[in-house]
Amino acid sequence: MASFKPTKVPVYPKLGEKVTQDTLYWKNYKAPVQIKEFGAVSNIDFSPVAPHNYAVTAFTRIHIYGPCSQEPVKTFTRFKDTAYCLVPVRTASWVFGRMRRLGGVHVLPFTPKPLPDPFTGGRRTPPTGDIPNAAELTTYQEHTDYIRCGVASKLNRDLFITGGRYVKVWDLLKGGQPLVSLKNHHKTVTCLALSSNGQRLLSASLDRHVKVYNTTSYKVVHNFDYAAAILSLALAPDDESIVVGMTNSILSIKHRKHTEESMEIMSQQRRRPSYRVFVKGKNYVPKQDDYLVSKPVKEHLAKYDRQLKKFNVSKALDTALETWFRRRKPEITVAVMKELNRRGTLKNALAGRDEEQLSRLLHFFIGNVVDTRFAPILVTAAEMILDIYKSVIGQSALIDRQLLRLQNLLETEINLERELLEVLGMLDTMFATSITRKEVPYSDIGRSNGLAQGEASSSRPELQVT
Amino acid sequence: MVEQAEIRVVHQGGSKITFREPVLSSDSRFLLCASGHNVKVFSTATEECVQELRGHTDLVTGVLLRPSNHLQVYSCSADGTVRLWDFTDGVLIKTYVIGYPICSIYASASHDGVVFIVMPAQRDKRSDVFQLVAVNLPQCADQLVETTDLSAVLGDVSSNPVAVAFGRSGEYLASAKGLQLEIYFFKKQKSYRFFLKEDHKNGGRNTFTCVACHPKDDCVATGHEDGKIRLWRNFNHKKEYTYSTLHWHHSAVSSLCFTPEGTNLLSGGVESVLVQWRYGQESQRDFLPRLGAAITHIAVSPDGALFCTSHSDNKITVIQSCVKVSSIIQGLVKGENVQTDLMVDPRSKALVLNGKPGHLQFYSLQRDKLLFNLDIVQQEYIHESGLKQFEVVKAAFDGSGSWLATVEERNPKAAEVEVNLKLWAFDEQTQCFVLNTTISAPHEARITAMCFDQAASSRTTMLLSCSRDGHFKAWQLAPPAHTDDEGPSWSCDFVGAYHNLLPECCCFSADGSLLAVSFQEVVTVWSPSSWELLVTLSQPPGDIRDLCFGRLSCSKYLLGTTTNKLLCCWNLLTCSLEWSTSTDVSLLLGDPLSENMAAFCLQDRSTDLFVFKPSEPRPLFSQKAVCSGRVTRAVFAPREAMLESCEESSQWLNRSQLYFLTSLMDLLTFSTKAEEERLMASSKQLVIDDSVAMTPFYLLLGKHRHQQPETEEQARGRSAERPAVPQSSAAVRELLQTPAHVLPSTSFLCSMFVQSLLISVTDNREENKLSEEEMDSEKGEEEASDEEMEPRVTRPEEALSDSPEMESVAPALTKAQVRELRRVRKLDHSWLAGLLDS
C-alpha cells in the first residue's frame, strides 16, 4: 500500500535577481534615517578613529554627526562660499578646505604614505602628484569627461580607481594602463568608496543609484536606489553605515542590522507556549540502552492534498484559491488546477460556483493568465469556465466586467506577441546578412514559452544548414 | 563438439505470475501461482521462489489444492493434462491426460476423486463455447494415466475461471455467463437460471463478471460490469429468488471472495482498492487503498489469516488480515507495449524498461527478479480507465551509469502534448537515482530519440534529444549560474535543424567525436565539439529507421536501415556507401563490447536474426524464424563472466547475451548448449539447497541446528563453532530429496543416516579431543564423535527420556558438572548403538 503522493508544485526559476551572499550582506541594513540639510550635500567623510564621527558639507556649512545620533554634534558655518571638500590631515581632525574653484580641484584622496599620491583634478586627465615634493609625476589621458572622484585600492597599492562619466581602474605598475572601464551608470559617477575589506567598490552616481562591484571580477553584485541624484557617499569603517548625500539636500544614513537583534526576535517567537507543546517530548535524546519503539511517521499533507486524496475536487480548488495562496503562491493554485486537469475533473471543480467564487476565479485568471509559466493551464480553465457559464452570462454585471477585462488583456497580449515575432524576424535577417558563411544563424522562436530552465545559457550560435 | 555449440532460443524469465488466481497453502506459508509453463511456489514470508514445478508443455491455466491432501496440488494446462504435484518437494506424482485444452479446474471436498474442468464444448480447439466437465480421476499406481471418464455437467459456461464457483460444501455450483446466472444442484441434478435485463434503468451494464459462494450459507455473490455486487438468496426456487445490491466500485468488479468462515466478502476491481464487506452488515466496509494496480484476483488462505491479491502489473500482494501488506511478489511488468527501449543499467547490469505506470523497472536477468521500481512521474496515479496519464516513453543511461535521462509524456494524441525531460544523477551514498533537473517542455512536440554520449566522463557528458518539431537539442551539465548552494543542473547547449525535416534517430560514435542524426532520408554527421555539419549521407528513397556506428575495428562504418527495406553501410573515411543489402530490417543493434551487430529482419511474418561484422561480407550467425511477428526491442546484456566457446557460430555470445521482446511481449534470449548444461547443474544445486530450506526434515533439523549452538555455548561457557551442515553427504541428500512418504521406515534408514552424519563431523577435532579425555575405553571412537551430532538427530526421543536434565543445563554450571552431565548423556544413548547393530 503506497502512500499518497502529494501534488508536485514545480519550482520555477526565480525571475528576479538571484539571492547571493552579497545581496544578503548589503540588504542587511535598517531603514534609512533621512536628515534635511541646508543645501545639496557635496561631501561626506568619516573619522577613522573610534567614535567614527562623520562630517558633512552642505552649502556653506559643515556638520559633524556622531555615529548614533541624528543631531549634529558640531556645526561650522564660517564659510562664505560653498564648501566642497574635506581633507583629513591627521587621524582625528579635519582641515576644512574652503575652496574656491581654483583649478576646479574637488577631490583629494590620499594613498598611504610613502606612495606617490594620486591627485585627481577636475580635468580630463588624472595627474599623479607627489605631495612631499609637490611635483606632478604622471598624467594619464584617458578620460573624456571631468573626473569627479578617485579612490586608491586597499588591497593592491598600485591600483587606483577614478570615476567620471565611467569608472576606470588604473594600474600604476603597468605605467598607468587602464584595466577596466565600468559603464554601469548612465550618468556621471560622483563618488566612489571602498568597503572595509577592500573587496567591494561602491559607486554613486547622478542617476540615483549606488552600485556595488566585486573588485576581482568588476561585476555589479548589488544595487541601491535613492530618491534623488547622489552627490556624495561614505562608508563607515566595518561597513557599519552607509551615508549618502543627495542634490535635494537630504542626507540618508543606513545603519547595519546586527545579528543579535534579529536572533533575539527569532528566539522570542520560538518561546511561544504552542511551540513548547509542539516540541514536547520530541527533543528527548534516548540513552544508550533504551529500547526504541518506532512510531510510524505521519506524513503531513497540505490541505488541498488532503482534499484531493478524498477526491473532493471542488473543495481542493477552493483551498488553493484562498487569498494567501492566490497572492503569495500562485504556482500552488496553478499546480492544483493542473493536477485536477490531469485527473480529468477540472470541469467538475469549476462548475457550480456562485457569483462571488466565480469572480474570485476570474480575478485570479486576469492576474496570472499572461504569465508564460501559467498560461497553458489557465487558458484551458478559462475556456472551461466560458463553456460552463455561457448560459448565465449577462446576469451579473461584475462577472461581465471581468470577462471583458480578460478579453482585453488577451487581445493586448496577442498584439504584443505579434510585435515581438516581427522583431525576431528582423533580427534574423540582420544576423543572416552579418555572417557570410554557409551556415546561417538560426533563432528558435518558440523557445520563449516554457523552456525556462533550458534557455538561460543557450547563448551559443544556433546553426541552420541551408 | 559441434552439438555443444548449438544455439537455441529460450524463454528467459519474466513470465506472468498473475495469469490465474494464486493459491495459498493451508498453513499459509506457501503461495502457488501459474507462471507460463510452470507453477511457481513462493514463500509468503520471504517472497522468495522456493520451488518451480516444471513439466507442462503449454500455458498452465489453473492451480488447485487437492481437497483430500493439503500438501498436493493439481495443475491444469492448455496442453490437455492435469498434473498432481507434491509442491513442498517439487515432485510430479501423477499426470492425467485429458486430451483437450483445459481452461480452468475446480474441485470440492464432497466430490472425492472428481475434478471439474472447463474445456471447449465442440471438441475442437477453436470453439468459443465452453463446457464444464466432471472428470473421474482413476485410482491407479501409474505415473501417466489416460482418463476417459468425462461427464458434462453444464453446457454453456464462461472460460474465465472466476465465473464458476462451488457452493456450500459442494452442494451446488454457480456459473455466470453474460447476463445469465446458472445454479446447478448436484443432488437434484437440476439447474436454475436467472436472467438480468440487458440494460438497467440507470444505464448500468449488468453483465456478470465474477461469482463467489458463501461457504456456510446459501448465498451467491456476483460482481457486475458496472461495479455492483449482487447477493442472491433463496435461489432454489425458480420464481421466489431475491437479491440485494451493494455498490461501491465505480467500474467492473473483477474478483470476489468470501473468507473461509463467511464473515467477510472481499471485492476488488480497477480502482486497486481491496474492499471488505461485513457479511450481514453490508453497510460496514473496510478499505485497503492504493495497492498499486488494478486487482485481478483475490485469494484467501484456508485459515483466513492471509489474503492475497494479484494485480494487473504482474504483482501479487500478500495482506495480513486486511490491514497490513506483508509482502509483495513482483514479476517483470510488461504492459501492452514497452515504450522505452530495453536497456541495461551499467552499474547493476539489470534490464531496465518502463514498468508500472510512471515507473522504470530494474529487473535482474540473472536472478529473474525485479530489483526495484524507480518512480519517474512522482504523481498520484488515478485508477480510472480511459484517463490520460503521464507515461515514461524514453529513457537513456550514460556510459558509466551515473546519469539517467527520462522523458515522460501525457496526451500524445492531442494537439498539445505535455512532455517533461528529467535527468537523474546516481547517488553513491543511497545507491539510487536522484532527480537532478526537470525540463518541462524541452521540445514543442514529441521526442523521437534520445541518446547520451557514451564515451565522455560523467561530468562532461552530453545528451541529445530529437523531436518532431524539427529540431535536435544538445543538453549539457552546466555549473550553477551563481554561487548558490544548489548543485549543477542541465541546460540546453545547442539547437540544430536541417531543412525543416523531422529528426528520427541519433547516435554518437563510440569515442564521442561524431554525432549522426537522421532527418527522414538524410543522415547528417556533426562534430559535437564545434557543432559543425561535417557531411550528409543519403540513400533515397525511404526514411532512416535505425542508425548505428561501428565499434572497435569497425569504427569507420556507419550503418543505417531504411523503411525501403535497405541496410546500408557507409564508410566515414571516404564518405561513400561501402555496401548495402536489401532486407526489411526491423531493428539494428550494436553490441557495446564487440564489433558485432545484430539485425532482426522481418520476412514472411516471422523474424530472422543475422549477426554480422560490418567489415566482413559473411554473417557470423543467422537463424531463420526466431519468432513470429516483428521484433522491435532488443538489447545486448553483458555477461558476468566471459564464456569460452571456440565454435565460430557461437563466439558472438561470448561477451554478451542478446535479449529480445517478441510482439507477444515474451522475453527471449539465445543460449548455447554448453551454457545450458552449466546452468542446469547450478540450478540443480540450488534446488537442493532450497528444498533443504523447506522440507519437514529441514524443519526438524534446522530447529535443532539453531538451538544446539545455544545449548552448547551455555553448557561449555565458550563459543563453540557451529557445526557444518552435513550437506555434502550423498546419503543425506538422497534422504532430503525424496518425499517422506515414499521413503522406507525411519528405523531402516537410521543407520545409514547416522553413518552419513558421522563422516561429516570429523573436522570437529577439538571437541573430539575434549570428549576423548573422559571417554570410557570400551566406548568406540565412533560413539565419541557421535556426541556432537546426537542431540540434533534424536532430540525428540531425548525430550521424552531425559528432558529434565537437558532443560536444567544453565550457564552457571561448572566444568566438572558439565562433564558429569555429558557422561550421563552418553550412557543414555547407548541404546542407539544397539539399534544400529540390529
TrEMBL record, chain A:
Q: What's an example Gene Ontology biological process for this entry?
A: rRNA processing
Could you tell me the keywords of this UniProt record?
Nucleus, Repeat, rRNA processing, WD repeat
User: Where in the cell is the protein located?
Assistant: Nucleus, Nucleolus
Tell me the superkingdom of the source.
Eukaryota
Q: What would be one Gene Ontology cellular-component term for the protein?
A: nucleolus
Question: InterPro entries from the entry?
Answer: U3_snoRNA-assocProt_15_C, WD40/YVTN_repeat-like_dom_sf, WD40_repeat_dom_sf, WD40_rpt
Query: What SMART domains does UniProt report for this protein, alphabetically?
Result: WD40
Gene3D superfamilies per the UniProt record, alphabetical: YVTN repeat-like/Quinoprotein amine dehydrogenase (2.130.10.10)
User: In this record, what's one Pfam family?
Assistant: WD40
Q: Where is the U3 small nucleolar RNA-associated protein 15 C-terminal domain?
A: 283-429
Say if the entry is tagged with keyword Ligase.
no
Where is it predominantly found?
nucleus
Q: Repeat WD: residue ranges?
A: 182-223
* Role played: Ribosome biogenesis factor. Involved in nucleolar processing of pre-18S ribosomal RNA. Required for optimal pre-ribosomal RNA transcription by RNA polymerase I. Part of the small subunit (SSU) processome, first precursor of the small eukaryotic ribosomal subunit. During the assembly of the SSU processome in the nucleolus, many ribosome biogenesis factors, an RNA chaperone and ribosomal proteins associate with the nascent pre-rRNA and work in concert to generate RNA folding, modifications, rearrangements and cleavage as well as targeted degradation of pre-ribosomal RNA by the RNA exosome.
Q: What is this protein called?
A: U3 small nucleolar RNA-associated protein 15 homolog
Biological source species:
Crenichthys baileyi
Q: What is the lineage of its organism?
A: Eukaryota, Metazoa, Chordata, Craniata, Vertebrata
Automatic annotation (TrEMBL), chain B:
Residue ranges annotated as compositionally biased, kind Basic and acidic residues, are: 707-721
Q: Which SMART domains match?
A: WD40 (SM00320)
One Gene Ontology term of the molecular function aspect: RNA binding
One Pfam family, short name? Beta-prop_WDR75_1st
Positions annotated as WD repeat = 53-95, 201-232, 246-277
List every stretch annotated Disordered: 705-727, 764-813
Keyword list, A-Z: Nucleus, Repeat, Ribosome biogenesis, rRNA processing, Transcription, WD repeat
**A biological process (GO) annotation for this entry?**
positive regulation of transcription by RNA polymerase I
GO annotations of cellular component type: small-subunit processome
Q: Which regions are flagged for Acidic residues bias?
A: 773-789
Major location (coarse) = nucleus
SUPFAM superfamilies attached here? Answer: Quinoprotein alcohol dehydrogenase-like, WD40 repeat-like
- What subcellular locations does the record give? Nucleus, Nucleolus
Q: Which residues form the WD repeat-containing protein 75 second beta-propeller domain?
A: 342-664
Name recorded for this polypeptide: WD repeat-containing protein 75
Which source organism? Crenichthys baileyi (White River springfish)
- Could you tell me the gene encoding this protein? WDR75
